[in-house]
Amino acid sequence: MFRLTWRLQRAGLLAMSAFGIFYGLVQAAAYNAVAGTTPAARLEFGQQMETVGRQFSLFLPLPHGVETVGGFIQWRVYGALPLLFGFWALLSAAGATRGDEERGLVEQWLGAGVGRARYLLTRVGVFAVAAAIAIALTSAAIEVGAAGAGSVLPAQPVGEVSLALLALTLAVYAMSMAAAQFVVGRVPATGLTGLVVAVTYFINSLSRTVTSLSPVARVISPFYYYDLSRPLAPGGTFDLAATIGLSVAAAALVAVSLWLFRIRDLGAPLYRVPVRDRPYTDKPSPNPLLRLPVLSIVYEQRLGVLAWSLACATLAFYLASIGRQMLDLVKGATGFRAYLTLIGHGDPYAALTGFLWFGIFQALLAVFAITQVARWSSDDNEGRLEMILSAPVSRTRVVLERAAGLLVRTALIIAVSSLGLYAGAASASIMLNPGSLTVASLVLIPFGLSFAAIGAVLAGRAPRAAVGVLSAYAFLSYLLTELGPLVKWPDWTLKLSVFSLYDSPLTNGVDWTGLGIMSAVTIAGFAIGTVLMQRRDVGA
């Protein structure tokens, strides 16, 4: 069984190892380019990052000692890797629980005499081995990149921070596995586990600047305990107790997952919502929304759209409401405040609020697009697409309905979230320009659709690999946006990232070139997806 589950984990291991090696090599090698080679230049760089780095506190820990290569790697690399490996962990956990059940693999193993405990523990063990290999290769690449740039990292601190990262990854995997027991299907499991992990991640991120959230993060967030270990930064230490605590929490959550797995039926959620008995009928539903081509898709996913809308609106309201407090916490950063005042046309609070929210919201919309592509791939692999085509419905109509339905759902989420942002800003006496906010929100629609258009091409050509490839592109796009300006790559390379194409329409106006490229990608992607759908056998 170990060999079979290892084969299922192999693709994820190869992808994560490649991501980690590439990210580690590039970031470590870029240190000299961004910090300079003289002590004076590096000291100046460190002072700048101490101030500017606060605006990245939602994704990275607060910078300490970044004038040294160790502090820079601790902040820029090992501060970002938890998000990357945590995303892999939740996807793997959803696949190991609900994904295997959807494909009938768990039923086959149980029928062959494999107990539930053996199955679950084998899955956890295989992932632990894969995570250890991927993290070890990533850390080795970081050391090689730093050595190539003329800055050798000490081996012991690298090993310590790698151990902390492994403990965090296993904790997220176990937490996701426990959450997946409450729903049916890989896609709902991914959505629920993603929500759980995102809440714990952002609670910890916000606690870095909003101290009142620290007690909450200490109770619910494994990322809080990972942040306690900073062995590479000058004066930083490795918190062995926190790392052991993460490992113990992972073991406890695995035990909870096993208990929940044993008490529920195979292919069923842990708790079934009571359903009223209704008389038998062979007539179709009288609901008119189910008869309209595009609205039927929107109606079927109404609960998911509602959950996304409310969650994003709540986060937008909260971030906007603390925008003034976050900027006021930056003491002595007159240059940073002057910069925000300039781009905010006299209002630094509006500039910071827009910067924080739209940076996060772009990532959320990319994740939402990936979940929709996962649904399209699932329809193809599990026979639902075959049923739709037998209605009969043309393949062209299927792709066009997918695009139109996604357009409506994305627009609804953006609209509700923008209202939450405006209300939150108003509660903090931050006046956002309604016209600029509307324009910035509208430009988000082609941004989200462009990711889905790339996914439509992948789903039309190779549906089984669509989610993995699209996730890789999203990660590389974000990496290009973050790293490109630091190493002073040409502007045309930045245009390869959809995140760069969006720019900052709230404060800088619309980047018409970027908007044109996103629109062209959207139209071309769905057009190519339509052609590929015509040429491929369903399920192949």
Please, could you describe this protein's structure?
The protein has 25 helices and no strands. The protein has 540 residues and is mainly alpha-helical. α17 (348-381) packs antiparallel against α19 (395-427) and α17 runs parallel beside α20. The two termini are 26 Å apart. The model is unreliable at 330-336 and 342-346 (pLDDT under 50).
Output the keywords:
single chain; 540 residues; mainly alpha; 25 helices; 0% strand; globular
In short:
With 540 residues, this protein is mainly α.
Layout of secondary structure:
Blueprint: H1 2-29, H2 31-35, H3 39-52, H4 69-77, H5 81-102, H6 105-111, H7 116-148, H8 155-179, H9 186-207, H10 214-220, H11 222-227, H12 240-263, H13 293-300, H14 302-321, H15 323-328, H16 334-343, H17 348-381, H18 384-389, H19 395-427, H20 434-461, H21 463-487, H22 491-494, H23 498-502, H24 505-508, H25 512-535
As an assembly, this protein is single chain
| Distinct helical segment count | 25
Number of strand elements: 0
Structural class: mainly alpha
Biggest β-sheet, characterized?
A: none
Radius of gyration: 24 Å
Mean pLDDT: 80
The span between the termini is: 26 Å
Low-confidence stretches: 330-336, 342-346
Give the overall shape, derived from the CA principal axes: globular
What is the N-to-C succession of helices and strands?
A: HHHHHHHHHHHHHHHHHHHHHHHHH
Strand fraction equals under 5%
Helix content: over 70%
